[in-house]
Amino acid sequence: MGALHEASQPKLEKQQATWVLIINIFLWPGLGTILAGVWAGGENKCLCVGLIQMFTACVFFGWIWAIMTACGIWKKSQ
User: How far is CA 7 from the centre of its chain?
Assistant: First the structure.
């Protein structure tokens, strides 16, 4: 994927990454990515990507993107 996609996947603790995945899949796409940015110390790229995912979730593009981002974060936490 692209550089922005990679930059929006910070390394978190396993429990935090699991929450990011659950939130992005079931609650609100993009919110998990925003939380990941906050938990990673205010990563601006995560915050911007999360907002874009939220706004594009209505056309399912953002939702799929949020799930892919959350899966990447979860894999990095292992």
Answer: 10
